[in-house]
Amino acid sequence: NLTAKFPTIVAAQTRIGMGKEPVDPDPHLGHAANYYYMLTGQVPDDTTLRTFESTLMLYAEHETNASTFACRVVTGTLSDFYSAVVAGIGAIKGPLHGGAIDDAMKMFIEIGSTDKASSYVDEALSAKQLLSGFGHRVYRAGDPRATELRGMAEALGMIVGERRWFDIAVACEQRMKETKGIIPNVDYYAAIVLYQLGFPLGLMTNVVASARIAGWSAHILEQYENN
Ligand code: COA
Q: Would you call 62 a catalytic residue per the annotation?
């Protein structure tokens, strides 16, 4: 139920924010196609659909990450299902967790061109700033989701005729690897994928949350079963 309703809420909220009317879901479309349709008013073509659906799947579940842990903590008090989900939302919006996807795209936009990437990374590191979309508490040798999303971001860039974001991301990735040895996480290339699919800045973390609702729900049910 929540997996179906989250995208409806996110899409309607986004359209209202842009001064547009919400689009009703179409019961003939699948989950990802409907999400895209409610947001843009258009049925996605095959490439768009496959790319968006894969992105949602890659975000759907990821074991005991911070937001899922928050859901389990609230469930552990025998509070209700919806309160547990609200805790998950509160945790995922943080910039060190799902909030990193919007911040990563903001960073690429701020850098603006490939030739500025290295100096941007150097200056951020010397100022002890965190670069969004890099690093992971668990994946030290690479985030397998990032590998998939990197390929998708590159392919999409070629289709839409705009390689700039991908090239900036690759240049920052190289510099970060040389200087600090830190590699991209899931949010890094997902930011470019969602942006190139037409999702606006500020919405991407909501897309992540509306995919992760599947995993959160499974963990909440498991916690209730054996608290
Ligand atoms: N940008 C710059 N430096 C970073 C960094 C980043 N994104 N991630 C880690 N580092 C630095 C740390 O500051 C630390 O530096 P130090 O040794 O000089 O003190 C060093 O790299 C080792 O950090 P590490 O132990 O690997 O990180 P962590 O496990 O404490 O933190 C994250 C993991 C995910 C919280 C952290 O990498 C981060 O904040 N990333 C940016 C936010 C993000 O993308 N979140 C989404 C995660 S899926």
A: no
